[in-house]
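[Meeting: bench + compute handoff]

Bench side (C.D.) handed over the final construct sequence. Compute side (W.E.) agreed to return the predicted structure before the next meeting so the bench team could plan truncations. Sequence as handed over:
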Amino acid sequence: DITDIRGAISEIRADLSGLTNRIGEVEDRVSSLEDDRCDWESHLQQLERNQEQLQDLENCSHRNNIHLLGLPKGEERNSGPKFLKCLLITCFNLPEGDTMEIEQAPRALGPRPGPDQRPRPIIARFLRFQDRERVLWLVREAGEVHWRGECLMFFPGLSKELVENRRRFTPVRRKYMALNLRDVMLFPATLKITVKG
């Protein structure tokens, strides 16, 4: 009987030794996974920083742009910058010799709209940021801009992500407009509301 007990104890010790080895391997794997997790978190933070920098660079590349909506198709007749400068001079009563320079003014890319759809916007790229700001200021001062019976809308050029971030404020802005409160959207996506002044 004693030899049977000793044999059983030997088997238990062998099993225990095997389990101890397995537990050691599992602890090593868990430790390795935790180290990898820290690496992944650091990579994720770097990726988020890179995404913010990329969005900032894209917004900088759009810095001199204005999107013009509401201009019927074909009005620019293959001379977008010249036509747009004449349109701005006419709409805002600017002097003929104005120094504003528009580099390019193509229609936005996309499929051709149908006859009952809104025409694609014009994306005007100004040579100088100050000219773009002056046009946006003139638009704000005018309130509504009309040209040949069409209501024109001017928007600053922004990246798609930033436009989506700003669009999230739309329901709130509608409520404030219903209360006759003024609001301003500050860069990048901050809503400022003016009450009584």
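W.E. noted at the follow-up: The chain has three domains: 1-62, 63-157, 158-197. C.D. will use this when planning the next construct.
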